[in-house]
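pasting MarR family transcriptional regulator for the record, 145 residues
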Amino acid sequence: MDHYTSKNFTLTESVGFALSKARNLIASEMDTALEELGITSPQMGVLLSISVGAASTPFELSKLLGIDTGLMTRLLDKLETKGLVERSRSVEDRRVVNLALTQEGVAVAAQIPQIAPKVLNARLRKFSKAEFNELCRLLRKFAGD
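structre below
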């Protein structure tokens, strides 16, 4: 079923616009909350992904977070400069770069779970439990998960 046609499509009423606006609001609020840690919301995603073992290479991170490899390289450069992430070449395959958190990176990642839920809960405060569950279900469906 087509929900949009050339006759009924308007930018500000599209699902893409609403998702983009919602994402930008959350990112801005998260960036403000993370200032005390000296990181941004995209950097938070990288640190948490490495921390929980969800990804250990730039390619895996790019795929998991939906970020192109060029942006991922810039994110990792900044995190490495901040002393939060280390890169090392794989012994088995020199083309592969492995990522690990430094001690400081581990400390920063450990503080994120005290900050991020507050930001998300503030944005979701008007949602009932059922509405929250439905939103999550619909977003997973939209994303093809």
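Strands lie at 85-89, 97-101.
Helices lie at 15-34, 41-51, 58-65, 69-81, 103-123, 129-143.
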